[in-house]
Automatic annotation (TrEMBL):
<protein>
    <submittedName>
        <fullName>Transposase</fullName>
    </submittedName>
</protein>
<dbReference type="InterPro" id="IPR009057">
    <property type="entry name" value="Homeodomain-like_sf"/>
</dbReference>
């Protein structure tokens, strides 16, 4: 998946079904529906949460993580001085600054491809400059190690 900005969950589910080599009769049986209804899900850009949860279980893949990464990358940074900070909630609280390998790879690739520079990523995604610099150095070292192993 190249971009976390535009999520087409039906297409992603179809891709995972193909990769997992799960037969359509098994999928139909799991969802208690017809092949046409499964095809409609594949064509749908979005699905209800309980349907995505079922797909996640069947395909052993967390499709919700894609949405979480979208929130990390594209939601506005929270204001530490906001009045909302003082309000408490019974809902679970999550840290926004936990980045997956996929997100790190995505951002580093944006820099290395020249699509965005570091300042644009810092401004757009709210990634601290030191964190972004550490990722690019680590990624560059990782790529050099892979190259050295291949030439040995």
């Amino acid at each position: 998946m190249k971009s976390f900005k535009n999520i087409d969950v039906g297409n992603l589910i179809r891709q995972r079904v193909t990769e997992s080599e799960i037969e359509i009769p098994r999928v139909c049986n799991f969802f208690s529906c017809t092949e046409e209804e499964i095809e409609e899900m594949y064509e749908s850009k979005s699905l209800e949460a309980d349907t995505i949860l079922k797909w996640s279980k069947l395909l052993e893949y967390d499709f919700f993580r894609i949405y979480s990464q979208h929130l990390i990358l594209f939601s506005p940074p929270s204001n530490a001085y906001s009045a909302d900070r003082e309000k408490t909630s019974a809902l679970p609280q999550f840290r926004k600054n936990i980045y997956t390998k996929e997100v790190i790879d995505f951002l580093v690739e944006l820099i290395q491809s020249g699509e965005k520079n570091m300042n644009e990523i810092i401004d757009q995604y709210g990634i601290p400059k030191t964190t972004l610099h550490r990722w690019t150095v680590k990624y560059r070292n990782h790529e050099l190690e892979k190259k050295n192993k291949n030439t040995s």
